[in-house]
Specification:
This protein is of the alpha/beta class and 443 residues long. The chain folds into 2 domains: 6-226 and 336-436, FAD/NAD(P)-binding domain (3-Layer(bba) Sandwich), CATH 3.50.50.60; 231-331, Flavocytochrome C3, Chain A, domain 1 (Alpha-Beta Complex). 34% of the residues lie in helices and 19% in strands. The chain is built from 12 helices and 16 strands. The protein has helices at residues 16-24, 60-70, 77-97, 129-142, 209-216, 248-252, 272-286, 300-306, 308-316, 373-391, 397-405, 415-436; strands at residues 6-12, 31-34, 51-52, 122-123, 147-150, 153-161, 164-172, 178-188, 221-222, 227-234, 256-258, 291-294, 326-335, 338-340, 352-354, 359-360. Strands 1, 2, 5, 6, 7, 8 and 15 form a 7-stranded mixed sheet that branches. The chain has a 4-stranded antiparallel sheet with strand order 10-13-12-11, with helices on one face. Strands 9-14-16 form a 3-stranded mixed sheet, covered by helices on one side. A hairpin with a 5-residue loop joins strand 7 (164-172) and strand 8. The protein binds flavin-adenine dinucleotide. The site of flavin-adenine dinucleotide has 42 residues, from helix 1, helix 4, strand 6 and helix 10. Residues 12-18, 34-37, 42-44, 46-51, 129-130, 154-155, 189-191, 201-202, 205-206, 209, 245, 334, 356-358, 371-374, 377 line the site of flavin-adenine dinucleotide.
Length: 443
Amino acid sequence: MRIENNYDVLIVGAGVAGLNCALHLPKNRRVLIICKDMPDKSDSYLAQGGICRLQGRDDFDSYFSDTMRAGHSENNPAAVRCMIESSEEIVDELVSLGVDFARNPDGSLATTREGGHSKNRICFHEDCTGKEITATLLKRVTELENVRIVPQITMLDIVESGNCCYGIIARDNLSGETAAIYANYVVMACGGIGGIFSHSTNFRLLTGDGIAICLNHGVAVDNINYVQIHPTTLYTKNQAGRSFLISESVRGEGAVLLDKNFHRFTDELQPRDVVTAAIYKQMQKDGTDFVWLDMRPIPKEEIEEHFPSILEKCREEGYDPLKEPIPVVPAQHYFMGGIRSDLDGRTTMSRLYAVGETCCNGVHGANRLASNSLLESLLFSKRAALDMAKIWSPIDKKDAEYAASKLDFSKYSDYKQLLEEYKQTVKKAIKEAENVKPHFGST
Ligand SMILES: Cc1cc2nc3c(=O)[nH]c(=O)nc-3n(C[C@H](O)[C@H](O)[C@H](O)COP(=O)(O)OP(=O)(O)OC[C@H]3O[C@@H](n4cnc5c(N)ncnc54)[C@H](O)[C@@H]3O)c2cc1C
């Protein structure tokens, strides 16, 4: 193995949640971050629209009610409050780490708007905010002597006994070796589940492995069928691979949705699930595979400055948003459910934390409000790091080795088959939950 078999904290995932957790752990702790592929292959890199920041105390009630309304009031109000109250601190921390957000002429942070928000409160960097934030965090983490990031290592299982987590079973994807790695604390920061859907904006490698592993080990999982469908991804004849997102801030800045006769058919700034339902209804009525999104109400200079990547991608596909509407279709986008975690990232298993999109702390309720996800991932991963530092205690190495000795390593020999089984485990759990409690967003 390229890695040692013992760490203080083992973080599974190198997106914003995993990286920010590592940044806030005490510098005297040895930390390992692993990821399935390279660190830039995370959904965090793909985030376009931005990150919410409270716009002064007067904005609190409005931001709170926008988040609750989008989430159909199934949100955990304490988690929502905690997130909103910390949003200024989190964005300011990013700025101090070197994240270059768009600025107003007076130097203050510029803000944009997306569906479900009653006012502008989203900080952004062009239309690639996620890349700007994640690349900055990655740079800062690689400067830390106590943290090691090792790409191309996949978590295949956890080492567990008596509802206590002692580490993970990891596979080195370069050599094919499999081994147990022990840690005092394991943090699941392994993102969403888009890879189990045929049409998704997510990286295909995000197949909910952490969710399946938790289900297999009796760790509580909540709202597993709460899957968000984004209303607008670019429609192409070849729909294989990752769907390209057309950020909601495009509609926030004035783009409109049109039917096959180029007539508007809905209010574009409603929450995502409502706009998605309106698009599906219109597609059915029109007998089409897509609807049109017209960006021409946005000034040309604004499109070029704020949405350069979207402009480039549309042109690559043969559409010029400055001159014509572009075809869009909904696709799976986000997972509101996940491993049950409290406001400090603790799961129902001792020494196991879950943060970021893979966890469910109830912030998003039944439907996530746009641009709340980076914020949520950053805040609760920081809180998890601070919590670990506070309650720190080492595992008993003998207990850990005993737990690993009970594992049947032969079940890890067929990697592809195992990951396929994990996909099926998640799909089955979604289906079963849907039977108990139907969710409008699921597919
Ligand atoms: C196209 C797109 C646009 C978005 N735009 C926005 C936006 O504007 N604002 C916003 O707030 N949110 C946005 N989001 C959502 C947001 O980007 C994600 O929810 C957030 O980045 C999740 O971060 P994360 O760290 O939890 O997971 P990710 O960034 O997805 O990272 C997951 C990590 O886990 C690793 N991993 C997974 N399984 C394993 C395993 N078995 N073993 C080892 N490693 C594993 C992966 O390799 C990866 O490193 C967008 C999402 C997409 C897809």
